[in-house]
Amino acid sequence: MRKYVLLLFLSLPFLAQSQNIKGPYVGVTTQFQNTWVINDEQYEDVNYKHRSTTKWAPYGFVAGYKFNENHNVQAEIYRSHQGQKFDLIDINGGKSGEKEIDLVYYNIPLLFKYTTTGKVRFNFQVGPQLGILQKGTEHNSFSRAATYQIKERTFSVPQGNYLLASTQDSDRSNSNVGEFNQYDLGVLLGTGVEYSLSTNLILTANLRYSYNFVNIRKEEHIEDLSRDSDYYVLRQNMVAGVQLGLNYLFNTGDGTSRARRE
């Protein structure tokens, strides 16, 4: 019995700390990320190869609330450069050109965050994310004329540069230039480490992954074989990166706890 009483006595400071660390917090972030555009319904027999594409989410802002030391709700808004580069591959397996999809979003995730205790601690984050497109282009550049094959069909694309889609109204005055969906929706997962520089100032480093479910283009089925080497049905954004941040906590803990009152 004495053992249990002693264990309870030793745990009281930790219970009190959990009760007392609470309140709103704000912060700033930056993120370095690899970005992909996934062709969701077509993985094999494609006339392109994905290239590793690294981009930057240069700045973001955080606003959250700690209900206690472990449980948080956090909203963010950050500017995110996304998209991907591809090598275009002809029927003989040679590179004939490049495709570049360049997208800039304001992403707004709403996250539930669980944080362990201690001066250095781990956190886990999950929640939905809304993306609002600011600008975007899809561009093909063929360095030479080449022949391609889709299933049983063969076709040729001449050398040249082709703008396939754009957010700019001036570009879309050409009827051959398509549109992007303005809104994107997905899920964001994260885990990382936090370090308390002081009672209120917190340094964060997180690994983040997001997968979105909305087609990047407004057109549902795209087949423009006079200017492109393949067809597309559903293409979605995927991002994985490292986020660094600095938060300031307005601690509203009152110095008491249920454990101490009892």
SSE arrangement:
Elements: H1 2-20, E1 23-39, E2 48-50, E3 54-66, E4 71-89, E5 95-115, E6 120-142, E7 146-150, E8 153-157, E9 160-166, E10 183-196, E11 201-212, E12 222-223, E13 231-232, E14 235-249, H2 258-261
Antiparallel strand pairs: 1-3, 1-14, 2-4, 3-4, 4-5, 5-6, 6-9, 6-10, 7-8, 10-11, 11-14, 12-13
Give start-end ranges of low-pLDDT stretches. 8-18, 255-262
Question: Which architecture name does CATH use?
Answer: Beta Barrel
Strand order of the largest sheet: 1-3-4-5-6-10-11-14
Q: What would the average pLDDT be, to the nearest integer? A: 89
Number of distinct helices: 2
Number of self-contained structural domains = 1
Number of strands: 14
| Span between termini | 18 Å
CATH top level label: Mainly Beta
The amount of helix comes to under 10%
CATH topology: Porin
The class by helix and strand makeup works out as: mainly beta
Shape: elongated
Rg, Å, rounded: 25 Å
Largest sheet: 8 strands, antiparallel, barrel
Strand content: over 45%
**What string, H for helix and E for strand, traces the elements in order?**
HEEEEEEEEEEEEEEH
Brief sketch in words of this structure:
This protein is mainly beta and 262 residues long.
How does this model look, in words?
- With 262 residues, the protein is mainly beta.
- It contains 2 helices and 14 strands; from the N terminus they run αββββββββββββββα.
Which features would summarize this protein structure in a list?
262 residues; mainly beta; Porin; eight-stranded antiparallel beta barrel; two-stranded antiparallel sheet; 60% strand; elongated; disordered C terminus
